[in-house]
Each structure stands twice: as C-alpha cells, then as structure tokens.
Design a protein that fits this description.
80% helix, Growth Hormone, Chain: A, two-stranded parallel sheet, 460 residues, mainly alpha, 1% strand, globular
C-alpha cells in the first residue's frame, strides 16, 4: 500500500502543515507516520514540561516567603489555589486552539506566553509587594497549566489507537515531571542561599529555547480542523463528564498535592523551607515517571481495570496518611504521601488511555468501521480531553482549598485527608459501575449487542 501524501497545504496557511495523516494505516505508520509522530512528541513534551514548571512555580516561591512577607499559611494556600484555578480554566480554550492555529503554531505561542508570568514575577518578587500583586502573579502563572491540554490534544491526533496509552502517558509524564524539576531547582537555589529571582531567571531563557525548537521541528495536521460541533457533542456526551470526575481523583490529586505538599510539611510538621524542599520533589518526580507505565499497563490490560485497582491503592495510602497525621509521625506521613503521588501518576496514565478507547468503542457500537470509526474516536476524544483536563485540574483547586479550611479550623490536614478518602471510594464505585460491571446476560439479538458493547469498555 502506498503511504498517503504528506505534502503541505498551500503556503497561505503558513507554517509546516501535513495535509494527510492516517496513523491507523499500518503501512503509512511504519514508513512515514511513526518518525514524524515521535519527533512532534519530543518537542511537545519539552514545551509542556516547562509549562508545568511555570504553573507550579508558586508552590516553590511560597517556601521562600518568610515572615518578612507578612503572609499566613492560609494566604499561601490561597495563592497556589488561584494558580491551580486559572490553569484549569485555560485548558478549555487551549484544547481548541490546536484546531484553530495548528499544533506546531500553538505550541510556539503557548510556550512564548510563559514569559509573561515569569518576567512579571521576577520584577515584583520581594518583601513589601502587596498580597494583591502576588495574587495576580500566581494567577498569571496558571496559563502554564493550559499547555497540557493543547499538547495532549495535539499528540492524540498523531498516534494510532493502539499506541495512544503509551504516547499520551509519555507526553503527560514528561510534562508532569516539570513539577519536581521546578522543585529540585528551587531546592538547589535555596541550598545555595539564592533568592526567588534566581529561580525565575533560570527559566526565562529555557522558555525561549522551547518556543524556538517547536518552530523548527514540529508540524501541524491540516485535517485537525476547528470543529465546534465536536465540542458540543463532547459536552453532551455523558462519558466526558464521567471521565472528568475520575480524572479529578488522579490528576486533580497529583497537581493539588504537588502545590500543597511543601506547605503541609511546613505548617503541620514545622519543617524549614530547605527541609521541606528536600522531600517535596520526590512524590511529583515518581508520580511523573510512572505515568507512562500507567498508560502502557492500560494498553495491555485495559484502562478501566488499572484505574479501578489504582483507586483501591490511593484509598489505602490515604488511610495511612490519616494515621500518620493523627499520630504526628513525619516518617509515616511522608512515605504514605509519596506512595499516594506514585499511585496518582499511575492513574493519570490509565484514565487518559480510557478516553480515546471509550469513543472508539462508541463508534463501533454505532456500526462504524475502519477509518470512519477511528476518525469518530479522534474527533470526540480530542474535543473531550480539554474539558476532562480542565475539570480534573479543578480537583487540585479543591485539594488546596480543603487544606486551607482544614488548617484554619483544626490546625492540621487530617480533616482534608478524610474527605479525600471518601472521594476515592466514590471514584472506585463509579469506575466499577460504568466501565466494569457486567450486565445480566440476554439472548435477544439487540440486547446481546448492547451487552458486548458494555463488556468491551473494560478494554478501554
């Protein structure tokens, strides 16, 4: 079979455009598609990685903000909460920006936009600056959270269904690792007695490099056109909101805990900024590294199965955290918290693998086959990813607000962790009821088809 042409569309559209893209065609994938897809994946990961770093920079900056800044622990939790909120909200427009501008073009723009929060924070980061100014800076940093949504939508279009779990897991994991890298750089700066401006200054040239490399080496897919109908269909699709709920439990936990871990150690266990920084990077690092494994396991065993048992593990780790918190055992608390990070990362990979599989399954249930089914799956999964990612990130906001309330009322985070434990139980129940519960066997033809459709969700 001859591979489809990859000649660019007319230059009036600008940039590097691939006119035809069919990753489900094995000959095309082997001869042309895989090399191009992997190249785009590498530079997408780089931009998303720096985006995550800038999004979570305030989780490190608050460690620098001692008594001379005049901020209470509640003030600091609210700062990081606002960064989380903006990062969640901008994921929706960032998702559709890929179809409007092209994946390569939007990566250049979104990477360049990271200069705004970084340069502004660099200019005002000193004692005496008003709390309102710091709040605006934290909100500006939230735009870094949008890079994830556009990157995932773009990479979802490049890879065939059989490779999506691995590719999306690697893309997201490489982005997520921007969190511990930022915290490690912050640890080095604190250890060297440097100030917060040193930390911010390190990232300004890296942002420029990411934007330039995206311009040089990435591509746009011409067929990924803006489709408002897909967005409307995704909003009406119940699986979009079910997966958004489940993603709160995985990614919402990861990003929420990434912002809060250092502050919890400082507030509840009296750790110094340097002592907190020595520990806080470990959980996000391991959670990021394991995310591709979650996607790969989902490819092999089914995302729903991996997700279900992952919630069992998250609930168990949270129960141990509660015990460590009540007994004021720093060792038990820290080890269990790091385990919870690892499980949240694993679940991130398995839940995101479920999304394209669910919509591919729906296409097959409607009688579509071949490229028609694949196109339907790409259309709805791409449109839904931004909504799912945005709602999932709002889970991080909920976590930080829960910690803020718990510390204000009880002086510890125990109450917040009890709420998180209940929520993981709900996530387990929803995963089982929607994607793994086997309906009663039936003999009639139409009913048999319905049963097969339901059972096949276990493979997504």
């Amino acid at each position: 079979m001859t591979a489809p042409s990859t000649a660019p569309v007319p230059p009036s559209r600008g940039g590097r455009w691939i006119q035809r893209w069919d990753p489900e065609d094995e000959t095309f994938w082997r001869e042309t598609g895989e090399k191009v897809a992997r190249r785009n994946l590498v530079f997408s990961v780089l931009s998303e990685h720096i985006g995550f770093s800038i999004w979570t920079v305030w989780s490190v900056l608050v460690l620098f903000m001692g008594p001379e800044y005049g901020l209470t622990p509640a003030d600091k939790f609210f700062l990081v909460s606002m960064a989380t909120l903006v990062g969640a909200v901008v994921r929706v427009p960032y998702t559709f920006a890929v179809a409007i501008f092209g994946g390569r073009n939007w990566t250049i723009v979104s990477a360049s936009l990271l200069l705004i929060p970084t340069v502004v924070a660099f200019a005002v980061m000193e004692p005496g600056t008003s709390y309102g100014t710091f709040l605006v800076c934290a909100m500006l940093a939230g735009i870094g959270g949008g890079n994830f949504a556009s990157s995932m939508t773009n990479i979802n279009a490049f890879f065939p269904l059989r490779k999506k779990g691995w590719a999306l897991g690697l893309n997201a994991g490489g982005g997520n690792i921007g969190v511990p890298v930022m915290q490690l750089v912050g640890l080095a700066v604190i250890g060297a007695s440097g100030g917060p401006r040193v930390l911010l200054g390190i990232y300004i040239p890296l942002i420029v490099v990411a934007a330039v490399l995206a311009a040089l080496y990435m591509d746009n897919i011409a067929s990924l056109k803006n489709d408002t109908g897909a967005a409307k269909d995704a909003v009406r699709e119940r699986h979009t909101w079910i997966m958004a709920f489940l993603y709160i439990g995985t990614f919402g936990s990861f990003i929420g805990y990434s912002f809060a871990f250092g502050l919890v150690l400082q507030t509840q266990f009296g750790r110094t900024p340097l002592q907190a920084a020595y520990v806080t990077f470990i959980g996000p690092l391991l959670g990021s590294l394991i995310r591709p494994l979650g996607g790969a396991l989902a490819d092999k065993y089914g995302g729903a199965r991996i997700t279900l048992w992952n919630y069992v593990g998250m609930a168990a780790a949270t129960a141990v955290i509660i015990v460590g918190s009540m007994r004021e055992s720093l060792a038990v608390f820290s080890v269990a918290f790091i385990a919870l990070f690892v499980l949240s990362g694993l679940g991130n990979g398995s839940t995101y693998k479920m999304i394209p599989g669910i919509f591919q399954n729906k296409a097959l249930a409607q009688g579509l086959t071949g490229e028609a089914a694949a196109a339907y799956g790409r259309r709805l999964s791409g449109a839904s990813m931004g909504l799912i990612g945005a709602v999932g990130a709002l889970g991080g906001l909920g976590i930080n607000l829960a910690f803020r309330q718990s510390f204000q009322t009880a002086g510890s985070g125990t109450g917040a962790f009890v709420a998180f434990l209940v929520f993981y139980g709900l996530c387990f129940a929803v995963t089982w009821a929607v994607y793994l519960r086997r309906p009663a066997a039936r003999t009639a033809g139409p009913a048999t088809t319905e049963t097969k459709t339901q059972l096949s969700y276990a493979e997504v």
